[in-house]
## 1
Amino acid sequence: MIFQNPLHEVAIIGAGPAGTTLALALLQAGLKPVIIDKAAFPRPKVCAGGLTIKALQFLPRDIGTILADEISRVNLSFNLNRGFTKSYPQPLLHTVDRRRFDAFLAERVQAAGGEFRQGERLESLTKTPGGAWRLETSRGSLRARVIVGADGARSAVARGAGLQPVDFWHLGLQAEVPRKLIRTAVFDRTIWLDMGSMPDGYAWGFPRGDLLLIGVGGPLSRGRELKGYQARVLSHLGLDNRSLPLAAHLIPHRVTPRPVCRDQVLLVGDAAGLADFWTGEGIFFALMSAALAARQIVGFFQGEADALAGYQSLIDREITPELTSAYQFSKIFNYLGPLAFRCLERYDYPWEVFCRVMRGDRSFLEVKSRFRPDILLHKLLVRSARNRPIA
Ligand SMILES: Cc1cc2nc3c(=O)[nH]c(=O)nc-3n(C[C@H](O)[C@H](O)[C@H](O)COP(=O)(O)OP(=O)(O)OC[C@H]3O[C@@H](n4cnc5c(N)ncnc54)[C@H](O)[C@@H]3O)c2cc1C
């Protein structure tokens, strides 16, 4: 007699925010997913930990207990030169420690009765003649009817299923710096962003409790330039870059409707290339894609034959156009360079629109569809006339 591994309904590979929030949604719907991660939790994750207000809608209500700084201001500089600060009357984002944040969600999965297998790496997957998938892991093998790749930027599930969802790769380099080493108040409720130093690249400083996360991101093909940029950023902040350990990670971007599912395999979050090209934001899209995947997987187990294939249309309708719009705005912003920067400094209107997008009151897609350069110019001129002191 041939011994068969038990057949799981759903196997989720990766317990980052995409994988765990998907597992929670499936558990709530009465399914019993197994979730597998190669790391033992809590585990580190290279990330600035910026959690926008719009991302909170997908998270457990008591997420507030692990949020660090509340951010409502952005300090902007151009090519590491002079800067200015813009404020918004409401919070734009919170910072989180990804080690804590991801462990918090993984604990929720376990508390809800989910099977969480830590320290187990997916090595390969093959379709069995019966239609299920067989997974080989560092600890053995298992079978599942539906596989979800929530395994991040270098997804083994995407590779195993022959899916290539990513258009561009960015590389992020980041150092964690004790806050006391930087003698400036610029980081109070404030993040710092530098633009214009390299094409499609930018630098950030995010406060998180006693730490500052100082990083640079840009095209993977410019890796060397990025290292030089990070060194310049650290010395700009008065830090010795040789003494600070740097961590690096890929950021995957999709701006075209590439495949994210086939044959009962779905990709979510970074595995599907869902990080914003302009802002680098990936957590919101990881959570949103997990919510969309959950809806389709539940439909599949309720007998809707086309539910899993429908995930592709949902991603192409609800997420890809937003990522494409952000990419296009980023290209315009880069092209205009110092002019765009001066506009942002001088006028509040583009800043306010950007804040609304961060909070989820608007999307880049809506902004693009309403974009009328003539009306924008008119608004800017009227506001500039109002701001001008009367002689
Ligand atoms: C430097 C940097 C800064 C960033 N800053 C921000 C920010 O401020 N705000 C924001 O919204 N986004 C940010 N991002 C993007 C964000 O980190 C990701 O978009 C987000 O983590 C994606 O979540 P995920 O669940 O899809 O994948 P991940 O969080 O990457 O989780 C994937 C999980 O899969 C596991 N895994 C991988 N391979 C296997 C395998 N073979 N077998 C088993 N398990 C596996 C990993 O251990 C990991 O736990 C940043 C990214 C970088 C690189």
## 2
Amino acid sequence: MTPQAVTLGGAPKSLFKDKVMQLLPEGGNLNACLTCGACAAGCPATGLEGMDPRKLLRMASLGMDEEILRTQWAWYCTMCQRCIYVCPMKIDIPQLVFNLRKSWPRDQRPKGIRESCDMALRSDTCSAMGANEEDWRYVVEDVAEEVRQSQSGFEHLLAPMDKKGATYFLNQNSREPVTEPDEMVPLWKVLHLAGVDWTYGSKGWAAENYCMFIADDENWEKVVRTKAKAVDDLGCKYWLNTE
Ligand code: SF4
Ligand code: SF4
């Protein structure tokens, strides 16, 4: 996308800044930016459509809400939180981004992640790719059997499903069983060799949660609760979330 010049104008309102400051401890620290640029230097989104996190924060601080909303910047952030770790003032730029996203009407948020969120809500597998319980179970059993048959030293490898009372409940991004099932095996091997008591679940197994990326709080919580229920129903002690 072609970078666009930012035009100054209008009465500053700083709605985004105010919202974020309400969420931060001790009245917020967005105004404490030293403009050092450490956040911009390490941000994977820096340079996309002229964006960088320092500029975004400056503009929010100056009340340039309208100018920010004329860009797609909110959707370039990966929510990696790298900027917080490197910031000497620990300024929470992803929280600012999250509020920017929430200000977009839901039907105008990016279609890909919006539909992935919607798909996850359609079943209690929580799979954004629509992988159902039966397919998931089949793929796991099939791949585990193939490893047992073909790989020396792993004749007793297990990929347990719905093992009640297992210590660890492991989830899995649905991209792996759907497109790259062999990618699941290295972790199984590690758990096997370490003697870990673990299980997958036939419900709530999909690790991804696109509702978070689309800033849909209500549905984000729904997905998390579905997954947490699956862990509780099996009586597992720990939930290993691989995302
Ligand atoms: S790293 Fe922190 S202090 Fe430095 S420019 Fe970025 S937000 Fe401001
Ligand atoms: S959280 Fe967003 S703004 Fe911060 S470094 Fe990651 S991509 Fe950049």
